[in-house]
Amino acid sequence: MFFLDSHFENLASKFSEEIIPLVAGEKVLKAWETGDVNSAPMMVGQSIGLIHSVPTCAKLLDTMIAEAKECLQKTTALIQTP
């Protein structure tokens, strides 16, 4: 009987040390704060598959400006009268 008591005590200890922090979100919070994504499961959703590059802020803004100009030119061309 001592073996079972010891075994269950060991399981309870591991559960409280490893599982409860994971379920409670403690490890996820720490991973978000430190950036260590290998220490906890991170929820990112399906949109993660749509990310093909991580440009610099300058490159992102340049691309957005170029795309906006292109959209404006196309729209202007549609509403101009001949």
Q: Which term fits the overall shape?
A: rod-shaped
Count of discrete alpha- or pi-helical segments spanning 4 or more residues: 3
Strand residue percentage: under 5%
**Derived structural class:** mainly alpha
Calculate Rg over CA atoms. 26 Å
In short:
The protein has 82 residues and is mostly helical. Helices cover 67% and strands 0% of the residues. The chain has one domain.
Give a written overview of the molecule:
- The protein has one domain (2-79).
- 67% of the residues lie in helices and 0% in strands.
- It contains three helices and no strands.
- It has helices spanning 2-24, 26-34, 57-79.
- The longest helix has 23 residues, at 2-24.
- The radius of gyration is 26 Å and the shape is rod-shaped.
Produce the secondary structure layout:
Layout lengths: L1 H23 L1 H9 L22 H23 L3
